[in-house]
Automatic annotation (TrEMBL):
Residues 1-12 have a biased composition (Polar residues). The gene is efeB. It comes from Streptomyces milbemycinicus. It comes from the Bacteria. It holds the Pfam family Dyp_perox_N. Involved in the recovery of exogenous heme iron. Extracts iron from heme while preserving the protoporphyrin ring intact. Residues 235-417 form the Dyp-type peroxidase C-terminal domain. The chain crosses the membrane at residues 33-56. Belongs to the DyP-type peroxidase family. This is Deferrochelatase. Residues 1-29 are annotated as: Disordered. Its EC number is 1.11.1.-. Binds 1 heme b (iron(II)-protoporphyrin IX) group non-covalently per subunit. Residues 81-224 form the Dyp-type peroxidase N-terminal domain. Its cofactor is heme b.
Length: 430
């Protein structure tokens, strides 16, 4: 588990902007109308009497504005898909699907077109046709939907000649205890939102649309800190209580695009502007971890638990000094400390953009929590990002004794699409 989770500070972002407030007396959407109906009494609106007419008129003339969390939108269309550099949302769903027997390239193209249209509507706060009503009261709440393709997808739709080299199977690692039923898959969806019902609504809508073409292989649910839960924007903590994400690559880095995204003239051409997502379900042995003393936990990580500052000194954002020694001659950052083993300088510059969710799936038979990290890492080439870092962690990371890698997958995530297009169109129709 690399110590590079993205910083979740809610800073101004052109990808994430509040919706303008509706102008009364513009027509009200079905979502807002039914949501307000719950407050004034739905029976009055349905009955058609004076009370119902008054209530409907008051909704049209003076709608209650959505809160900042509910009104925030992340554009679906663009050169790159949303959900990669978008600030972490509070709720997430990861779902992999396998194509149904007989599903051909044409059927998959139609599915991706439907999915893209639905994602466009939901991320804008619109209500699709045949909606389930799960999120009628809410706005888009920073909803993002990201699509990807697994290695097995290409052979099943006759596109083996367009399979990227970067989708080669990940190597085995000694610490892996992988469940094949919860690994890999033909298609992949990543859904994130700052409202749980909005996130589930999108998950349900997309799953329903795939019924005749693809079947769910596995699905995982995650969470993060809710926006506004802290007195000021702060780096997130993981379930071990550690500040997690200080050293994540930043979009302002000169080499950020080179590390994370496939270049415009890269190969294959349909992946231009895309990225590769490594997905791992990493269970944390929290009972064992919690029994460690605070000092021991900090030595395993290489940072103070209270504020995330490196044990070499300074504040959270102070660069880690891997050469510093204590007064007794010992290394300030232990030889097997997570931040040392995962540092780019320890891995010939290898880096990836981590954008994970925590998860808790109840308790195991021995009473231990089935909880940990839904690791999602983005890079232009997994062999230059995830693989070298994980190999190093696998051999010498003190934190690995408290982790179990239980599921794994790798997906090619193409660039975004323009209005009227769908994600993956260059692959399926190129």
């Amino acid at each position: 588990m690399s110590k590079t989770t993205p910083n979740t500070q809610r800073t101004p972002d052109t990808q994430r902007t509040p919706n303008p407030q509706p102008e009364p007396p513009s027509p009200i959407s079905r979502r807002r109308l039914l949501g307000t109906a719950g407050a004034v009494g739905a029976a009055g609106l349905v009955a058609g009497g004076a009370a119902g007419a008054y209530a409907a008129e008051s909704v049209r003339s003076d709608p209650d504005p959505l809160s900042s969390v509910g009104s925030t939108t992340v554009p679906f269309h663009g050169e790159r898909q949303a959900g990669i550099t978008t600030p972490l949302q509070a709720h997430g769903h990861l779902i992999a699907l396998d194509l149904a027997p007989g599903a051909d390239r044409k059927a998959v193209a139609a599915l991706l077109r439907r999915w893209s249209k639905t994602a466009e509507e939901l991320t804008a706060g619109k209500v699709p046709a045949d909606d389930t009503g799960i999120a009628l009261d809410a706005g888009p709440a920073s909803l993002t939907v990201t699509f990807g393709f697994g290695r097995t997808f290409f052979g099943r739709v006759g596109l083996k000649d367009r399979l990227p080299e970067e989708l080669a199977p990940l190597p085995d690692f000694s610490a892996d205890v992988l469940d094949p039923k919860r690994s890999n898959g033909d298609l992949w969806l990543q859904i994130g939102a700052d409202d749980g019902l909005v996130a589930f609504h999108a998950l349900r809508a997309l799953q329903r649309e795939a019924r005749e073409v693809a079947r769910v292989r596995w699905q995982m649910n995650g969470f993060n800190r809710t926006p506004g839960a802290t007195s000021r924007p702060m780096t997130a903590r993981n379930l071990m209580g550690q500040v997690d994400g200080t050293n994540n690559p930043k979009t302002t880095d000169d080499d950020f695009d080179q590390r994370i995204f496939v270049p415009a003239k890269g190969k294959p051409d349909w992946m231009a502007g895309g990225s590769y997502a490594v997905v791992r379900r990493i269970r944390m042995l929290l009972d064992s971890w919690d029994h460690l003393s605070l000092e021991r936990q900090e030595r395993v990580i290489g940072r103070r638990k209270s504020d995330g500052a490196p044990l070499s000194g300074g504040t959270e954002t102070t660069p880690v000094d891997l050469t510093k020694v204590n007064a007794d001659g010992s290394l300030a950052i232990a030889g097997d400390a997570h931040v040392r083993v995962a540092a780019p300088v320890s891995n010939q510059g290898a880096a990836m953009l981590r954008r994970p969710f925590s998860y808790h799936d109840g308790f195991r038979e021995d009473g231990a929590p089935d909880a940990g990290l839904l690791f999602v890492a983005w890079q232009a080439d997994p062999m230059k990002g995830f693989v070298p870092v994980q190999r190093k962690l696998d051999r010498g990371d003190g934190l690995s004794r408290f982790l179990r890698h239980e599921a794994s997958a790798l997906f090619a995530v193409p660039g975004g699409c323009a209005p009227g297009e769908y994600v993956g169109q260059a692959l399926l129709e190129g």
